[in-house]
Amino acid sequence: MTARTRGAAGRRGAMRRVTAVRDLREARAAFRRRGESVAFVPTMGAIHEGHLSLVRLARRSADRVVASIFVNPLQFGPHEDFRRYPRPIRRDRARFAEAGVDLLWEPRVEDVYPPGDRTRVRVEGLTEVLEGASRPGHFDGVTTVVARLLHAVQPDVLWLGQKDAQQAIVIERMCADLLVPIAVRRGPTVREGDGLALSSRNAYLGERERQHAVALSQGLSSARVLLERGERSAAKLVAAIRREWAGYPLVREDYVAVVDATTLEPVGRVRGRVLVAVAARVGPARLIDNLEWSPR
Predict the structure, then answer these.
(1) CB of 44 within 8 A of CB of 69?
(2) Is 81 helix (H, G, I), strand (E, B) or coil?
(3) DSSP 8-state assignment for residue 15
(4) What's the whole-model pTM score?
(5) CB–CB of 43/69 below 8 Å?
(6) What is the pLDDT of residue 296?
């Protein structure tokens, strides 16, 4: 931590909340006048330990932390869970304040998508596979909203979670292609004690469904064991995950894939860094998880 960062941390006061873009920009300008760097953690709320781990990483990477809560309608399909997506706003605010967020932006839909809005951002090649194949148009909504949030906040560092690995890869590509002058960093996936990746959608799970949801991480653990033992066949890795899932009848596979960790192209044999990505429905929840692995 630099001397400037220690000083900023010492001056940390109560978290400020803003809604209007104008107020956000005024607060950001004040940070800039003081020479303070900014790390940004964008979220859709329903804050859990995974989000808070990103806030802690953000605090170590910059003088000030800006977070946002915005349930983005553009990234939900017509039959997805936009209306019932959890929105415990008071609890979210308290958690962010306790974690040390300096500025929380809670934009309205019209703040992000003003009247007459017609502009969309698309990253080709990375958005038509995996989540993009299962949820057409999803990543156009993600890239469009993140581009707008970044233009408004103008952070020095953007923090994303590894659990949404494809999303992170797409946003990294977007920022590089659009010459956005920020550092994009990833925080590791945070898990429950039994391995289930933390997700806002875990709230949809009943008790029995929760017991079966652990199959996603257990399947990935089986794949990791095979990789560590020298297995390089993608088909055998996929088969191992499916064997694990067979013991959990409430798990309905969406996809199990082994892809290049940069291009997201399928691989037949593991020769470099790969992403083992899975998605499944468990009861009313659609869950995702992944394993990124490189040969030693």
Answers:
(1) yes
(2) coil
(3) P
(4) 0.93
(5) yes
(6) 83
Dump pLDDT digits (tens) for 16-25. 999 999 999 9
Mean pLDDT of the chain: 95
* Domains observed in the chain: 3-187 (3.40.50.620), 200-290 (3.30.1300.10)
Distance CA(34)–CA(38), nearest Å, equals 11
pLDDT digits (tens, 9 = 90+) for 78-101: 888 899 899 999 999 999 999 999
Q: Which pair of tokens denotes residue 17?
A: 């909340």
Q: Which segments within 51-161 are labelled E, that is strand?
A: 64-69, 103-105, 157-161
What is the C-alpha to C-alpha distance for residues 231 and 281, in angstroms, rounded to an integer?
28
User: How far apart, in whole angstroms, are the C-alpha atoms of residue 10 and residue 180?
Assistant: 30
* Count of residues making up the chain: 296
In 3D space, the residue among 80, 148, 81 whose CA is nearest the CA of residue 110 turns out to be: 148
Positions marked catalytic: 51
